[in-house]
Amino acid sequence: MKIVILDAATLGADIDLSPVGALGDMTVFEGTAEGEISTRLADADVAVVNKLKMNETTLNGAEKLKIICVTATGYDNIDIAYCASRGIAVCNVPAYSTDSVAQVTLAMALSLTTHLFAYRTHVTSGAYTAGGVANCLVPVYHELSSLTWGVVGGGGIGRRVAEVAKAMGCRVLMCRKQPETVFEGVDLDTLCREADIISLHVPLTDQTRGMINKDRIRAMKKGAILINVARGAVADEAALAEAIESGHLGGLGVDVFEREPLCADHPYYRIMNRENVCLTPHMAWGAFEARARCVSIVAENIKAFFAGERKNRVFKSPN
Question: Do both 242 and 296 map to the same domain?
């Protein structure tokens, strides 16, 4: 079995790939340009990929390819219909990063609600020393237990974030496709109007693309905080930047971008140095334990496939 890992750098240099390598002849590329994909997969039975586009163009020469293993839960970079037409199986890795993403979501929420960047600057700038007062309480911050946290997306990550928010004393609103029985279920427009903190935890689909649009941002409370750890394209990025600039939004935490890495002319460049903005490089999923777990599950997916089993197989829904 020939296994090709196309973008190993996205998993980090500290992660042991031997669980996958033990299954066959493994070739590892730290990164792969789009034009190199077809050549590098020419003799491959298995492709392991994170962010690269897998479609008719990039897979044109991969005649022996039997399975694509995505080192992620989301697979919007894979043309599932095309792979199905070629008989190429696609497997993802669900639920491996739940704790990691929830942790970063909470860290962003705590930092932005408590204005930690502003207070840190007050000390590091020398203003605290020069001020002659034992404390500084501006900007004003509020206890989480006085706030409403709206969670968009009721999958594993969304539910973990909702549990943490509840444990911190928040009123929790949940927007999801299925009826909600544990938390207070509401539609998206209600959530945008009522929540003080809004965190996004949905996959990128035709239905979720652009769901946080100008109208919904405008409907949010003045001073609300929005956190996007889902996919960049689920929100209007230009509108979010404008809402920070106008002072309508009180804070913005973003770990994902429509184009990655972040391009130099992105509207977020105008706001990234503000104390109420926290931008991170798509790292929320990547705690060491989560990445190790991901590689282990990819190995299990490959073993299951060649044993004739269906494990973590994804498919294009007829609906």
Answer: no
Q: Do 52 and 114 fall within a single domain?
A: no
Would you state the pLDDT for residue 316?
Answer: 56
- Are 105 and 39 part of one and the same domain? no
pLDDT tens per residue, range 107-157: 999 999 999 999 999 999 999 999 999 999 999 999 999 999 999 999 999
> What pTM, to 2 d.p., does this model score?
0.92
231 catalytic, yes or no?
yes
Q: Are 55 and 49 in contact (CB under 8 A)?
A: no
Q: Does the annotation mark 258 as catalytic?
A: no
**173 within some domain:** yes
Within the chain, how many helices (H) and strands (E) appear? Answer: 11, 12
The CA distance from 118 to 160, in Å, is: 28
Mean pLDDT of 260-283: 97
For range 259-283, the mean pLDDT: 97
Please report, for the domain that includes residue 7, its CATH number.
Answer: 3.40.50.720
The active-site residue out of 40, 160, 266, 282 is 282
Is 250 in the same domain as 117? yes
Asked about 282 being catalytic, the answer comes back as yes
Cα(118)–Cα(297) distance, integer angstroms:
41
If asked whether residues 140 and 161 sit together in one domain, one would say yes
